[in-house]
Amino acid sequence: MFLLAIIVIISYLVGSIPTSIIISKAAKGIDIREHGSGNAGGTNVMRVLGWKYGVLVIILDALKGAIAVVLVARLFYGPLPFENVSPFDDFTLVQIIAGVAAVIGHIWTIFAGFKGGKGIATALGMLMMLITVEMLIAIGVFVLVVTISRYVSLGSLLGAISIPITLILRENVFHVNINGYNTILPFVIFITLLVIYTHRKNLARIFSGTENRISFKKK
Prior knowledge:
Layout: H1 2-16, H2 19-28, H3 42-49, H4 51-70, H5 90-107, H6 120-128, H7 132-149, H8 152-172, H9 181-198, H10 200-208
Helix pairs in contact: 1-4, 1-5, 2-4, 3-4, 4-5, 4-6, 5-6, 7-8, 8-9
């Protein structure tokens, strides 16, 4: 149990690295939380500093999720301290636990008063390591929605919602044998609900017509 706790703590700390705050201060000497929407995420960086800095932050945030799954989880060895009733092997289950810890760290970062980003990019990096096909489709949905609507928040939400839908369709309609489907589906649904929760204010602004549209030009 001690080793698993260490993995969770390290993954949380990796996820907690406030990349948007670091980049905004290094690039322009500002605290991104005091500008734009006030959110410490890649979208707000893109809105305030331009698309290049925004994309850099999104990539770094995604790497946090990938690092937790690919590197930090490898610290684990031996049997799990509890019975593994999932269809995954022990290591894959540890990867999922580490990835979730990183996402939580990004949303509630210890390095910025427990007020971080919305977790989209970190979840993207985590899930890309586990369900690649579904994540590529989600990225396609995101790009399409943002291109048409210019709402990054709407693209993030619909991209997240597309993941469990794609899983269900591939397994039950197209009869693709997805390893650990019965375990990964509720897990992905949980992540999707978490994304919807962190975007609740964006949803309210979209419905009221006050949500900001993204611009690729630096202000």
